[in-house]
Amino acid sequence: MKLTKFLLLILGISLILLVGCSCTTFIAEEPIIDQETTDTTETPEQTPEEPEPVILACQNSADCEQGELCIDNNCGTVEKLYKTEGCDVKCNFNSIQVTTSDQQTLNLNRGKGDYTSAGAVEWVLSPGPDYCQGEEIIVPVKLLKKNLGKVLSEEYITLSPSETSPTITHPNVKSVQFTFTIDSVNEECN
User: Fold this and answer.
1) What is the pLDDT of residues 158-179, one digit of tens each?
2) What share of the chain in percent tops pLDDT 90?
3) What is the C-alpha separation between 138 and 160, in angstroms, rounded?
4) The pLDDT of residue 38 is above 60
5) CA dist., res. 97 & res. 183, Å (int)
6) What pLDDT is stored for residue 2 in this prediction?
7) CA-to-CA dists, residue 123 to 87, 100, 117, 138, angstroms
């Protein structure tokens, strides 16, 4: 009999310990209010600001969504570089004069280009829309970095007249250190 009571007592204590340890109680913390400094004025609700459009950073055009290009390390389109609406007179350029770090002076039309380092880097003047007269002339240039004829990357840089490109390098050919300067732009307006 004593053994049964002892076992029941042990079983009861074990049950209390089990139930007591497995329950989690949550106590809501009440904020501490300092009666002397409580401000009774209500703060107006703040309306969330609309998020600004996200401009994706990129290293080459493959990093951008379909229909966009990597231009100056941001995804976009050549057309969006120019103001094309709300003007009477529109302009475009059909050719530029360029001096390269290879000591070449070239006259190039849009859609044409040249290469350096045995074709490891090819660069081409990108076509663009007619833009409003008086706007800054922006010259978009497509850069193709190749290895054995296979395109490794495509990106675009933009330059203004008299501006020199950043140094253009190649991921596999460390000796490539190429620049070019836009000497002049033949702009025509209608």
Assistant:
1) 999 999 999 999 999 999 999 9
2) 69
3) 5
4) no
5) 5
6) 66
7) 31, 11, 12, 16
Tokens 């904020």 sit on residue: 31
Report the number of secondary-structure helices (H) and strands (E) in the chain. Answer: 1, 10
Residue 158: both structure tokens together: 């933009």
Q: What is the pTM of this model?
A: 0.69
Place of tokens 């395109």: 151
Q: State the Rg of the chain over Cα.
A: 34
Question: What gap in Å lies between CA 182 and CA 99, rounded to an integer?
Answer: 7
CA distance 153 to 147: 10
The beta-strand segments (E) located in the chain are: 69-71, 74-76, 90-100, 105-109, 113-116, 121-125, 131-132, 139-147, 150-159, 180-189
How many C-beta atoms lie closer than 10 Å to residue 90's C-beta? Answer: 18
Q: What is the largest CA-CA distance in the chain?
A: 115
Distances (CA, A) of 97 to 18, 28, 94, 108: 87, 74, 11, 6
Q: pLDDT by residue (tens digit) across 52-83?
A: 555 569 999 999 999 999 999 999 999 999 99
Q: Where are the domains of the chain?
A: 86-189
Q: Distance (Å, rounded) from C-alpha 188 to C-alpha 170?
A: 35
Only one residue has tokens 């049964």, namely 4
